[in-house]
User: What shape does this take?
Amino acid sequence: MLTYDFTKATGALYKYLYKCIKEDINSGKLGKNEKMPSKRTLAKNLGISTITVENAYDQLIGEGYMYAITKKGYYVSDISGIMEIAIPEKLTESEEKLPDIKKDIYDFSSNYTEPDNFPFSVWTKLMRENMAEKKQELLKDLSNRGVLLLREAIANYLLSFRGMNVKPSQIVVGAGTEYLYELLIKLLGKDKIYCMENPGYKKITQIYKSNDIECRYANMDENGVSVEELALSGADIAHISPTHHFPTGITMPVSRRYEILAWANKKEGRYIIEDDYDSEFRLNGRPVPPLQSIDACGKVIYMNTFSKSLTPTIRISYMVLPKHLSDEFNEKLSFYSCTVSTFEQYTLAEFIKRGYFEKHINRMRLYYVRKRHSVLEHINECFDKNECRIIENDSGLHFILELETDLRDKDLEDKLSDRHIRLQALTDFYQMSDMEDKHRFILNYSSLDMERLDEALHVIKAVMHGNPCSRIRK
Amino acid sequence: MLTYDFTKATGALYKYLYKCIKEDINSGKLGKNEKMPSKRTLAKNLGISTITVENAYDQLIGEGYMYAITKKGYYVSDISGIMEIAIPEKLTESEEKLPDIKKDIYDFSSNYTEPDNFPFSVWTKLMRENMAEKKQELLKDLSNRGVLLLREAIANYLLSFRGMNVKPSQIVVGAGTEYLYELLIKLLGKDKIYCMENPGYKKITQIYKSNDIECRYANMDENGVSVEELALSGADIAHISPTHHFPTGITMPVSRRYEILAWANKKEGRYIIEDDYDSEFRLNGRPVPPLQSIDACGKVIYMNTFSKSLTPTIRISYMVLPKHLSDEFNEKLSFYSCTVSTFEQYTLAEFIKRGYFEKHINRMRLYYVRKRHSVLEHINECFDKNECRIIENDSGLHFILELETDLRDKDLEDKLSDRHIRLQALTDFYQMSDMEDKHRFILNYSSLDMERLDEALHVIKAVMHGNPCSRIRK
Assistant: This one.
C-alpha cells in the first residue's frame, strides 16, 4: 500500500498527495497499468479524507497519469515520454517596444483622429447608459449581421444624408472594411475576377490576393475609372470609390456613374463595390448621390466605415447588400458571428440615433475646412508659385501636391524619410512597377501638427532643391 | 444669359441656383456641351456673389451635370439617362423584429453570460479611466496583432494560470476565434488538409469549408481524438480541443498528448490547433497543462477566447503562434488590421493586469460549481435512476444526459422544440448523417433559469415517455 509522509505537506493536502503519486509514476515506482488502491482504502491508510484522495486522483486522471475503469478501479497510465513542465519566471519585460505613436515622425501619409476631435464624453455617457440599461442585450444579442438598433440607425442616416433607401436587413456590420471584403469574396464566389482602380488603394489588392482572387486593373481618367478599360479587363466585380477616389480625389460624375451601372447590367453576376469611405467629408456643396441610390437593378454593394468619421481604431464598418444578395448572405453565411462587440454597437447606435453623429460630422467638417485652408496657406507662404502646384478636389481629407523637382519620386521619399518626414508619391499607388515619375505627392492633412508644419514644409523645399542639410527637429 | 428669379429662393442661395440650373439641364433647356457663363459674369447678371455661383457650379460639377475645361470655362455634361433621386420618407418601422432574446424558449443548447455575472461596474470604471487617460493610444494604436498592453497581459496570464511561456509578440488578438481560423488558413496555406474531431463543433467545419478547405475527421475514443485515425486521414493540421472536448467533455490525458505531438513531428508542415475554449472552467483539480506548454518543436497553435470567461458578445479571442509562424505572420499578413477596437482592448488589458480577471474567473468558477450541483440535484429529483444517466466530465460548462427512451434523437428534439424546449442530441455533432441514435443530449447549464428548470425537466420526462400533452409555460 502507498504511504506518504504527510508531515512534510505544505498547502492543500490533495495537491501534496497528487505530487507524491505523480513523482512515483514518473520515477517508475508505480508502473504502467498498475492497479491503484481505492479512494476509501488509501484515505483510511493515510489518515486523510476520501475527498482529498478523490481530488488528487481527479487531477492525476485529468492530466493522464491515471485512468479509471468503471466498477474495477484506478490504474497507472502509460506515460512513456512524459516530461515535467517547468513554470518559468514571470514575464517582466516585453521584447517589444511600446506602440510607436510616431511622435518623432512628421507624417503626411496617414489620417487619424486627434484626441480633441473624438467625442469622448458623449461616448462614455452612452456606453455607461447602455451598461446600466441594456445588460440583457449587451450579453445576448448575437445577431450575425450586427445589432438591429445599429442597422436601423445606419439605415436612417443613409436615408437622410445620402438619399439611400435601404432596409436594416440589407446592412451587414463588420470589424473593418477589410473584414467585409472577405465576407463579400465568400458571398460572390472565389472564381470571380475583381477589377480595381489604377492608381488605387493597394491594401485592397493585397486583401483580394491573399484570398487567391484574380485581380485586374482599369486606369483612371479625369472622370474616374475608365469603363472601357473595365469592360476590356474581363472582370466580374468592379471595386471603386466614385465619391472620392483615393489617391486622386476625383469624384465620378453622374454620366460616368450611369455608364458603369450599364456595364454591370450587361451581364449576370457583375457587381459594383462602391467604397464610400470618406463621403462624410465632402467639403463643398451637397454630397454627390451614391451609385447605390441610382441603382435600380441590385448591382451595387455599398460600403462605408466609421474609420474616417470617428476613428479607425474603433473598427466598425458596414455594407449594404442588394436584396437578392442579402437573402443569399442569410442562406450561405449566417453562421458567421458578427465581429463587432455589442457594447460598441449599441453605443454607436445611440450615438447616431440621438443626433450626436450628425453634430460630430458637422463639427469635424468645419474643423477640416479650416484646417485644410490653413495648411494651404502655409504651403503658399513657403513655396513660390513655380515651385509647387496644389491639385485640390472638393472632397475628403487629402489633396495632392505637385513639386517642381528633378529628384525621382522614390528618391524624394527616401531623402525625406531620412529626415523623419513621411510623404508618399502618387506613383506608389499605381500597379505598374516601371511607373514614370509624376512628382505628385499625397498630402493627408487631417492630423497634421500645425506647429511643426512650416518646419516640415521647409525641409521638403530644401530637399526638393537638393539641399541635404536641412532636417526636421525631432 | 441665364436668369433666375431669386425672390423665390428659400434656404442657401447657392442651393437654389444649383437647383435651377440642374432643372434646366434635366429639362434640356441647357443642352449637352453648351457653354455656361463664367462665374463672375453670372454672378454680376444675377446680382449675387461669385462665391455663390462657385458653390453651385462646384456642386453641379461634382454631381456630373457640368464639366470644366481649364482656361476655357464651364460646359453642360451629357446626362442622357439621368434620373432624379427621390428621397423617400424616413424609415419609421423596421421589417425585422427586435432581437430575439429567446425569453420564451427554455434553452439547454447554449451558454451566455447572465447580467449579474458580467463585471459591469469594473468594466465601466476601466473604460472611463482609459478614455480619460489613454486618448492618444485609443485613437492611434493600430498594432495589427492587437495592442501590446493586452498581449502582455495575456502572456502573463498564460504563464501564471496555464504554465505557458510565450512572448507577447507570438500572440495575435482577433474578433472571435472564427476570424482567427480564417487568418490561420491564410498563414498555413489553403492546400492544407484539416482534420477535425468526430463528434465535434460543426461550426468549425462550416468555416473551413466556406474557405474551400478540405476537411477530414477522426473519431474520438475515451482519451480524445484517435491519433491512429488522424494519421490515416492524411491531414496536415489537427484541430482539437484536448482540455475539454465539445461535446463529449473528454480531457485528453498526457500520454495521448505526446502521441499527437509525435504525429505532428513526423512530417514538416504538420500543425496542431489547440482550441482551449473553456479551460478557465475546469472545475476540479488543477488545470491540465496545455499541449502548447509541452510542445518543444513549434507544432502547436494555441487558441483561446473571452467568450466563455466574459461574454461571447464582446468578440475577443487570441491565438499564440510558434515563433517561426509568428515571423511568417508578420511577413505575410501584417497588412491586416486588428479587428478588435482599441477601446475594448485597453479595457480588457487593464482588467487582466489589475487582477480583476482572475477574481472574476474564481467567482464564476464557484458560481458554476454550485449551479452545476444544483442542476444535477434537480435532475436526480425529477428522474428515476433508471430513466436517465448523467455523463459528467470534470471540466467546462456542460455535461451529457443519457435518456432511457424509445424515441429517436431527432424526434425527441422536435417534440421538445414544439414545447419550447431546446435540447440538442449528441448525434447532431457527428459528421455521419446515418448516425445511430445514442439518446444522449448536451446540457449546457451556465445560463439556465433555475426557476423554470423543474418544469422543463418534467416536460422532457413526459415527452420521453410519449406523453404529448405536457408543455412548458411560456
